[in-house]
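User: For a benchmark we're assembling, each entry needs the component sequences followed by a predicted structure for the full assembly. Here are entry 17's components. Please fill in the structure.
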Amino acid sequence: MGRLNSGQVRKKILAFTGLFAMGGMLVLPIFMALPALAGGAPAGGGPPADVVAAQGAEAEGEAEPVEVGRDIYYKIEGPVVGAPAPRTKDTAEFYPRYNFESRVLLWVANQQHLYYGSFVLAVPIFCMCVEFAGMVSKDKAMAKKYDQLAHDFIKISLTAYSLTAILGGILIFTFLTLYPAFFGYLSSIFRPVMHIYAFMFVAESGVLYIYYYGWDKMTEGIMKWIHLSICVVLNVIGTLLMFLANSWIAFMMSPAGIDEQGRYLGNIWNVIHSALWNPLNVHRILGNMAFGGGVVAAYAAYRFLSARTDEERAHYDWMGYIAMSLGVAFLIPLPFAGYWLMREVYAYRQQMGITLMGGLLAWLFIIQATMIGILFLTTNYYLWQALGRMSGGERFQKYIKYFVFILVVGLLVFITPHTIVMTPAELKAMGGQQHPVLGNFGVMSAKNGGINAIIMTTIASFIWYQRGNKMPAVKWASFGNIFLITFFVVAHVNNIWVASYGYFIPANVRIGLSVPQVAGTLSCLFIGTTINLIMLKGAKEIGPIKYGKISSRSQYALIMLATAFTWMMGLMGYIRSSVRLFWHVNEVMRDNSPWAYTHTIGFAANVISFNVLFFWITIMFVFWLGTLGMKKVPVPATEPAPAIPVPQPAGGK
Amino acid sequence: MQKIIYIGISLVISVAYFQFLDWFLMDMQGLDYFYILR
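Assistant: Structure for entry 17:
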């Protein structure tokens, strides 16, 4: 490494100073909030300082006893420092009218903000991974490709970020205008952390712009590492922002830190750290990542389909593959995070769990199961199509039909409802509420088996893809291949065994079987992938990966993946929110508006579809804007891309 | 013959692993994996 000249040293010092200043600014709100978090400062949720001072002057000399309240969740006592939750009435004072259902307006505003919020939180995480991959890559050409890909990612995110902020503003106005009493109460509870949220938001914007505009200035050596560190800081802020926002919805579902009248008890950590906060955090971060991957993959597919040159097609095919892989990597553990969330919901309020999965909202879960099935089927389909762009990928084609069989059977079991709506005549013809054969599959034992079979098959498809154009060269390759196949077969058999075993034991023991089932699937993911990667070290390459030489169908699969994910996100958001039924804050603040009822499935599905359509129309606009400022020409693929036959559907031309 | 030995070894390892996993994770939750045999 050569010596640095004075200019470089100055730049280096400047960069470090900037980084430390930025870090200091980030930590500042936490220090400022420490007294309030510790409960020592004038606690939030109470009256403003001037009111407190006036009250103090009035009561000079008289030391009034502090009223103590009991936390409805933590069951500990604390000083009452907040006002009770408002008791609303169905009047324009509490629920102003705008000749339209206020809840639907709020629903749309919330969902749009959430879609964009998820997208702009997920994309910088991808960006960080891809930029890091580029920095550690020994192949110069590949390093440049990764760097450009990360740049492409963040460019899309930047325009979407402005839209997210605008939608956030619209959301706050919607809340203030349509639900003033409720929003006032929620703001009073979370007042101690509101300024942290605001600071974080400003910091996120600042760091994002520094990261993006500093790209071409920080390209080599230590500066590049600082650039990557800025992305790490950006993601930490983004994640904290999401966790804070999650604490509001978790509080609405499972309130804590307040007494039975809804009065704040002076400890903001108890309010934030409610029963469902952590499960929601995990579920949302995984969901956001999978969603972000899907949207970026759809962007790449759109650019692939509209590309005019082979180089462009190769670049966007590769981009779509990377985005899809990152998205699916987070999609695989998502159902398990969902199970954990549901388990915590049941533990918090059994009735809430029953409303979700066994009562009023149960049919929406059948739709959700169908969507999950579509996501996994589409992912597998894409991977099988992608095998077509590698020499050697054709080895696996003959086995696809067996995978299709497992996926379809798993999906059919997974979507079987427990009971169905029937006419009396149909009920009589079937001999009861449940079908004599298929009715047996409409229980959790079978459904767990179904989804785990689907996920394990998807993992196997990934392993195929990793091997596509490679032949293991390790000495123990023969044993390794047999072991991998046996491990997956036994995993499937064990999955079926555990699912069947559940039918013969009581419910309180059966519920625990989902844990080993999940662990079995995760074993396939971690053990299977690790063994495969070890086997592929120094593997013999059968032929190059010919990016760009893939069927158009695969790109439509990517678009379908993203659309299905958007729809499912809308659906699950609606389910999570409507489980509160007629409560703004569960069991504390009642919703007395005329819209405090549960919509029909058809109406809900229409609003979700509208949200999906609206999001995709606006994100297409964002994509289009992204193409306007396109300066960089994609780096040509390092490998030649001769025409190869693309797999065709059976009997197709 | 070698293939059969490999399959045998793989089967023993895989079955033992999954059975241990099932038992261990049920036991961790305070539940009896062999409930049906009691």
